[in-house]
Protein backbone atom coordinates (compact mmCIF):
# COMPACT_ATOMS: atom_id res chain seq x y z
CA UNK A 1 0.00 0.00 0.00
CA UNK A 2 1.30 3.43 -0.92
CA UNK A 3 1.80 6.00 1.81
CA UNK A 4 2.16 9.77 1.78
CA UNK A 5 5.44 10.92 3.31
CA UNK A 6 6.66 14.36 4.37
CA UNK A 7 3.49 16.34 3.79
CA UNK A 8 4.10 20.09 3.68
CA UNK A 9 2.56 22.02 6.61
CA UNK A 10 1.13 24.49 4.10
CA UNK A 11 0.33 22.85 0.77
CA UNK A 12 0.76 24.34 -2.68
CA UNK A 13 -1.02 23.57 -5.96
CA UNK A 14 -1.82 19.89 -6.41
CA UNK A 15 -0.68 19.83 -10.02
CA UNK A 16 2.91 20.41 -8.88
CA UNK A 17 2.82 16.95 -7.22
CA UNK A 18 5.20 18.30 -4.60
CA UNK A 19 3.07 18.54 -1.45
CA UNK A 20 4.13 15.06 -0.38
CA UNK A 21 5.93 11.98 -1.65
CA UNK A 22 3.92 8.85 -2.31
CA UNK A 23 5.83 5.58 -1.93
CA UNK A 24 5.00 1.92 -1.54
CA UNK A 25 6.82 0.76 1.60
CA UNK A 26 6.78 -2.87 2.69
CA UNK A 27 5.78 -3.85 6.21
CA UNK A 28 8.40 -4.45 8.88
CA UNK A 29 9.80 -7.99 9.03
CA UNK A 30 10.47 -8.87 12.66
CA UNK A 31 12.29 -12.15 11.91
CA UNK A 32 15.27 -10.40 10.30
CA UNK A 33 15.64 -7.65 12.90
CA UNK A 34 19.27 -6.66 13.49
CA UNK A 35 20.67 -5.75 16.88
CA UNK A 36 21.72 -2.20 17.66
CA UNK A 37 25.27 -1.95 19.04
CA UNK A 38 26.18 0.89 21.40
CA UNK A 39 29.74 2.01 22.15
CA UNK A 40 28.97 2.41 25.86
CA UNK A 41 25.89 0.32 26.59
CA UNK A 42 26.01 1.14 30.31
CA UNK A 43 24.96 4.71 29.43
CA UNK A 44 21.96 3.55 27.40
CA UNK A 45 18.82 2.09 28.92
CA UNK A 46 16.99 -0.55 26.90
CA UNK A 47 13.31 0.04 27.58
CA UNK A 48 9.87 -1.06 26.44
CA UNK A 49 6.51 0.61 26.33
CA UNK A 50 7.57 4.02 25.03
CA UNK A 51 4.58 5.71 23.44
CA UNK A 52 3.87 9.23 22.26
CA UNK A 53 1.60 9.70 25.29
CA UNK A 54 4.43 8.77 27.68
CA UNK A 55 6.78 11.46 26.32
CA UNK A 56 5.78 14.72 27.98
CA UNK A 57 8.15 16.82 25.83
CA UNK A 58 6.88 15.49 22.50
CA UNK A 59 4.50 17.75 20.61
CA UNK A 60 1.14 15.90 20.53
CA UNK A 61 0.69 16.68 16.83
CA UNK A 62 4.03 15.16 15.81
CA UNK A 63 3.47 12.27 13.41
CA UNK A 64 6.87 11.93 11.78
CA UNK A 65 7.35 11.30 8.08
CA UNK A 66 4.12 9.28 8.04
CA UNK A 67 1.76 8.50 10.96
CA UNK A 68 1.68 4.76 10.30
CA UNK A 69 5.43 4.20 9.98
CA UNK A 70 6.11 6.47 12.97
CA UNK A 71 3.60 4.49 15.04
CA UNK A 72 5.64 1.36 14.30
CA UNK A 73 8.61 2.85 16.17
CA UNK A 74 6.35 3.24 19.22
CA UNK A 75 5.14 -0.37 19.06
CA UNK A 76 6.23 -3.43 21.05
CA UNK A 77 8.10 -4.73 17.98
CA UNK A 78 10.59 -1.86 18.13
CA UNK A 79 13.92 -1.83 19.95
CA UNK A 80 13.60 1.18 22.22
CA UNK A 81 16.38 3.00 24.04
CA UNK A 82 16.56 5.90 26.45
CA UNK A 83 19.56 8.16 27.04
CA UNK A 84 19.55 10.51 30.02
CA UNK A 85 22.45 12.93 30.44
CA UNK A 86 22.44 14.29 34.02
CA UNK A 87 22.90 17.98 34.73
CA UNK A 88 26.41 19.42 34.32
CA UNK A 89 27.82 16.27 32.69
CA UNK A 90 29.08 15.29 29.23
CA UNK A 91 28.61 12.05 27.33
CA UNK A 92 29.74 10.70 23.97
CA UNK A 93 28.07 7.69 22.37
CA UNK A 94 28.01 5.81 19.09
CA UNK A 95 25.18 3.70 17.69
CA UNK A 96 26.24 1.11 15.08
CA UNK A 97 23.68 -0.44 12.74
CA UNK A 98 25.11 -2.95 10.26
CA UNK A 99 22.81 -4.71 7.82
CA UNK A 100 23.75 -8.28 6.82
CA UNK A 101 22.26 -10.95 4.56
CA UNK A 102 20.30 -12.46 7.45
CA UNK A 103 19.63 -9.30 9.46
CA UNK A 104 18.43 -6.60 7.11
CA UNK A 105 15.63 -4.86 9.02
CA UNK A 106 15.67 -2.52 12.02
CA UNK A 107 12.76 -0.91 13.80
CA UNK A 108 13.72 1.30 16.70
CA UNK A 109 13.35 4.44 18.76
CA UNK A 110 15.90 6.48 20.71
CA UNK A 111 14.65 8.92 23.34
CA UNK A 112 17.19 11.51 24.45
CA UNK A 113 16.95 13.70 27.55
CA UNK A 114 19.83 16.15 27.90
CA UNK A 115 19.38 17.88 31.23
CA UNK A 116 20.33 21.49 32.06
CA UNK A 117 23.97 22.47 31.38
CA UNK A 118 24.73 18.97 30.05
CA UNK A 119 26.13 17.88 26.68
CA UNK A 120 25.68 14.81 24.50
CA UNK A 121 27.57 13.96 21.31
CA UNK A 122 25.89 11.07 19.50
CA UNK A 123 27.31 9.38 16.41
CA UNK A 124 25.16 7.07 14.28
CA UNK A 125 26.98 4.78 11.84
CA UNK A 126 24.75 2.86 9.43
CA UNK A 127 26.31 0.39 7.00
CA UNK A 128 24.72 -2.12 4.66
CA UNK A 129 26.58 -5.32 3.78
CA UNK A 130 23.44 -7.03 2.49
CA UNK A 131 22.44 -7.50 -1.15
CA UNK A 132 18.85 -8.24 -0.16
CA UNK A 133 16.01 -5.79 0.17
CA UNK A 134 15.84 -4.36 3.66
CA UNK A 135 14.14 -1.70 5.69
CA UNK A 136 15.24 0.81 8.31
CA UNK A 137 12.58 2.68 10.29
CA UNK A 138 13.51 4.54 13.45
CA UNK A 139 12.80 7.65 15.51
CA UNK A 140 15.10 9.97 17.45
CA UNK A 141 13.12 12.08 19.91
CA UNK A 142 15.09 14.62 21.93
CA UNK A 143 14.59 17.13 24.71
CA UNK A 144 17.43 19.61 25.24
CA UNK A 145 17.37 21.35 28.62
CA UNK A 146 18.34 24.89 29.55
CA UNK A 147 21.89 25.74 28.43
CA UNK A 148 22.37 22.15 27.25
CA UNK A 149 24.01 20.97 24.02
CA UNK A 150 23.05 18.10 21.72
CA UNK A 151 25.20 17.07 18.75
CA UNK A 152 24.17 14.27 16.40
CA UNK A 153 26.28 13.05 13.48
CA UNK A 154 24.80 10.40 11.19
CA UNK A 155 26.73 8.60 8.45
CA UNK A 156 24.78 6.20 6.24
CA UNK A 157 26.71 4.20 3.63
CA UNK A 158 26.62 0.80 1.98
CA UNK A 159 24.82 -1.06 -0.77
CA UNK A 160 21.69 1.00 -1.56
CA UNK A 161 19.02 -1.73 -1.50
CA UNK A 162 17.09 -0.65 1.57
CA UNK A 163 14.38 1.84 2.39
CA UNK A 164 15.55 4.10 5.23
CA UNK A 165 13.04 6.17 7.19
CA UNK A 166 14.01 8.47 10.05
CA UNK A 167 11.60 10.48 12.19
CA UNK A 168 13.42 13.13 14.22
CA UNK A 169 11.91 15.53 16.74
CA UNK A 170 13.84 18.04 18.85
CA UNK A 171 12.58 20.30 21.63
CA UNK A 172 14.89 23.15 22.61
CA UNK A 173 14.60 25.08 25.86
CA UNK A 174 16.18 28.32 27.06
CA UNK A 175 19.65 28.96 25.55
CA UNK A 176 19.94 25.32 24.48
CA UNK A 177 21.85 24.29 21.36
CA UNK A 178 21.49 21.47 18.86
CA UNK A 179 23.78 20.74 15.91
CA UNK A 180 23.07 17.96 13.42
CA UNK A 181 25.19 16.63 10.55
CA UNK A 182 23.86 14.02 8.14
CA UNK A 183 25.72 12.16 5.38
CA UNK A 184 23.33 10.16 3.20
CA UNK A 185 25.06 7.73 0.85
CA UNK A 186 23.22 4.46 1.51
CA UNK A 187 19.73 3.09 0.85
CA UNK A 188 17.81 3.06 -2.38
CA UNK A 189 15.10 5.24 -0.85
CA UNK A 190 15.86 7.69 1.94
CA UNK A 191 13.01 9.40 3.76
CA UNK A 192 14.23 11.89 6.35
CA UNK A 193 11.89 13.95 8.53
CA UNK A 194 13.34 16.50 10.98
CA UNK A 195 10.97 18.59 13.09
CA UNK A 196 12.06 21.01 15.81
CA UNK A 197 10.39 23.35 18.29
CA UNK A 198 12.60 26.22 19.44
CA UNK A 199 10.65 27.05 22.59
CA UNK A 200 13.20 28.66 24.87
CA UNK A 201 14.59 32.13 24.40
CA UNK A 202 17.95 32.26 22.57
CA UNK A 203 17.88 28.57 21.65
CA UNK A 204 19.69 27.61 18.43
CA UNK A 205 19.52 24.77 15.93
CA UNK A 206 21.97 24.06 13.12
CA UNK A 207 21.53 21.23 10.62
CA UNK A 208 23.72 20.39 7.63
CA UNK A 209 23.42 17.52 5.20
CA UNK A 210 25.52 16.11 2.36
CA UNK A 211 24.80 13.41 -0.20
CA UNK A 212 25.69 11.98 -3.59
CA UNK A 213 22.92 9.93 -5.20
CA UNK A 214 23.32 7.69 -8.23
CA UNK A 215 21.45 5.08 -10.28
CA UNK A 216 17.77 5.19 -9.17
CA UNK A 217 18.26 6.46 -5.65
CA UNK A 218 15.48 8.60 -4.20
CA UNK A 219 16.11 11.09 -1.39
CA UNK A 220 13.19 12.79 0.32
CA UNK A 221 14.37 15.39 2.83
CA UNK A 222 12.00 17.33 5.09
CA UNK A 223 12.88 19.98 7.67
CA UNK A 224 10.44 21.95 9.83
CA UNK A 225 11.62 24.67 12.21
CA UNK A 226 9.05 26.20 14.57
CA UNK A 227 10.29 29.36 16.26
CA UNK A 228 8.37 30.05 19.46
CA UNK A 229 10.95 31.72 21.71
CA UNK A 230 12.45 35.16 21.37
CA UNK A 231 15.86 35.54 19.70
CA UNK A 232 15.90 31.93 18.55
CA UNK A 233 18.05 30.94 15.57
CA UNK A 234 17.90 28.09 13.08
CA UNK A 235 20.27 27.38 10.22
CA UNK A 236 19.76 24.68 7.62
CA UNK A 237 21.95 23.82 4.63
CA UNK A 238 22.08 20.80 2.33
CA UNK A 239 24.68 20.13 -0.36
CA UNK A 240 24.71 17.30 -2.85
CA UNK A 241 25.05 15.89 -6.33
CA UNK A 242 22.66 13.80 -8.42
CA UNK A 243 23.78 11.52 -11.24
CA UNK A 244 22.19 8.85 -13.45
CA UNK A 245 18.42 8.74 -12.78
CA UNK A 246 18.62 9.79 -9.13
CA UNK A 247 15.98 12.05 -7.60
CA UNK A 248 15.95 14.34 -4.59
CA UNK A 249 13.12 16.30 -2.98
CA UNK A 250 13.86 19.04 -0.46
CA UNK A 251 11.09 20.45 1.70
CA UNK A 252 12.18 23.06 4.21
CA UNK A 253 9.89 25.16 6.39
CA UNK A 254 10.71 27.96 8.81
CA UNK A 255 7.68 29.03 10.84
CA UNK A 256 7.95 32.16 12.98
CA UNK A 257 5.23 31.87 15.59
CA UNK A 258 3.64 34.82 17.38
CA UNK A 259 5.97 35.89 20.17
CA UNK A 260 9.23 34.91 18.45
CA UNK A 261 10.49 38.47 18.06
CA UNK A 262 14.15 38.76 17.18
CA UNK A 263 14.24 35.25 15.71
CA UNK A 264 16.42 34.38 12.71
CA UNK A 265 15.93 31.48 10.32
CA UNK A 266 18.01 30.47 7.31
CA UNK A 267 17.60 27.57 4.90
CA UNK A 268 19.75 26.71 1.88
CA UNK A 269 19.67 23.88 -0.64
CA UNK A 270 22.40 23.42 -3.24
CA UNK A 271 22.58 20.57 -5.72
CA UNK A 272 24.65 19.78 -8.81
CA UNK A 273 22.97 17.78 -11.57
CA UNK A 274 25.44 15.44 -13.26
CA UNK A 275 22.98 13.79 -15.62
CA UNK A 276 20.07 14.93 -17.84
CA UNK A 277 17.96 12.20 -16.21
CA UNK A 278 18.61 13.39 -12.65
CA UNK A 279 15.70 15.25 -11.06
CA UNK A 280 15.61 17.75 -8.22
CA UNK A 281 12.67 19.44 -6.48
CA UNK A 282 13.29 22.16 -3.90
CA UNK A 283 10.51 23.70 -1.84
CA UNK A 284 11.77 26.24 0.71
CA UNK A 285 8.87 27.67 2.71
CA UNK A 286 8.64 30.63 5.09
CA UNK A 287 5.64 31.16 7.40
CA UNK A 288 5.31 34.09 9.75
CA UNK A 289 2.93 35.55 12.34
CA UNK A 290 5.50 37.83 13.99
CA UNK A 291 6.90 41.16 12.77
CA UNK A 292 10.43 41.47 14.12
CA UNK A 293 12.06 38.40 12.53
CA UNK A 294 14.54 37.56 9.77
CA UNK A 295 13.85 34.70 7.39
CA UNK A 296 16.08 33.78 4.45
CA UNK A 297 15.98 30.94 1.99
CA UNK A 298 18.08 30.04 -1.03
CA UNK A 299 17.99 27.22 -3.53
CA UNK A 300 20.30 26.39 -6.42
CA UNK A 301 20.19 23.47 -8.85
CA UNK A 302 22.12 23.24 -12.08
CA UNK A 303 24.87 21.65 -14.08
CA UNK A 304 28.52 21.84 -13.18
CA UNK A 305 30.38 25.02 -14.06
CA UNK A 306 32.14 24.31 -17.38
CA UNK A 307 34.77 26.99 -16.81
CA UNK A 308 35.73 25.41 -13.52
CA UNK A 309 35.96 22.00 -15.18
CA UNK A 310 38.07 23.43 -17.99
CA UNK A 311 40.43 25.06 -15.48
CA UNK A 312 40.97 21.79 -13.60
CA UNK A 313 41.39 19.77 -16.81
CA UNK A 314 43.95 22.30 -18.04
CA UNK A 315 45.95 21.41 -14.93
CA UNK A 316 46.14 17.77 -15.93
CA UNK A 317 43.02 16.26 -14.35
CA UNK A 318 40.72 14.07 -16.40
CA UNK A 319 37.09 15.12 -16.76
CA UNK A 320 35.98 12.47 -14.24
CA UNK A 321 38.62 13.58 -11.73
CA UNK A 322 37.69 17.23 -12.20
CA UNK A 323 34.01 16.54 -11.55
CA UNK A 324 34.84 14.57 -8.42
CA UNK A 325 37.03 17.40 -7.13
CA UNK A 326 34.28 19.97 -7.70
CA UNK A 327 31.70 17.88 -5.86
CA UNK A 328 34.08 17.06 -3.02
CA UNK A 329 34.97 20.75 -2.65
CA UNK A 330 31.27 21.58 -2.26
CA UNK A 331 30.73 18.90 0.40
CA UNK A 332 34.06 19.20 2.21
CA UNK A 333 33.20 22.10 4.58
CA UNK A 334 30.44 19.96 6.11
CA UNK A 335 32.44 16.71 6.03
CA UNK A 336 35.32 18.37 7.88
CA UNK A 337 32.96 19.08 10.79
CA UNK A 338 32.64 15.34 11.45
CA UNK A 339 34.84 14.84 14.51
CA UNK A 340 35.47 11.08 14.30
CA UNK A 341 38.31 10.31 11.88
CA UNK A 342 36.88 6.95 10.82
CA UNK A 343 33.45 8.39 10.01
CA UNK A 344 34.98 11.28 8.10
CA UNK A 345 37.10 8.90 6.01
CA UNK A 346 34.04 6.72 5.42
CA UNK A 347 32.20 9.69 3.96
CA UNK A 348 35.12 10.71 1.73
CA UNK A 349 35.39 7.14 0.44
CA UNK A 350 31.65 7.10 -0.24
CA UNK A 351 31.93 10.32 -2.25
CA UNK A 352 34.74 8.85 -4.34
CA UNK A 353 32.82 5.60 -4.91
CA UNK A 354 29.63 7.39 -5.91
CA UNK A 355 31.52 9.61 -8.35
CA UNK A 356 33.35 6.78 -10.13
CA UNK A 357 32.85 6.33 -13.88
CA UNK A 358 30.65 9.35 -14.46
Automatic annotation (TrEMBL):
Which Gene Ontology biological process is one annotated for this entry? Answer: iron-sulfur cluster assembly
Highest taxon listed in the record's lineage: Bacteria
Which InterPro entries is this protein grouped with? Fe-S_cluster_assembly_SufBD, SUF_FeS_clus_asmbl_SufBD_core, SUF_FeS_clus_asmbl_SufBD_sf
SUF system FeS cluster assembly SufBD core domain residues are 105-329
Q: Which PANTHER family match?
A: PROTEIN ABCI7, CHLOROPLASTIC
Name this protein carries in UniProt: Fe-S cluster assembly scaffold protein SufB
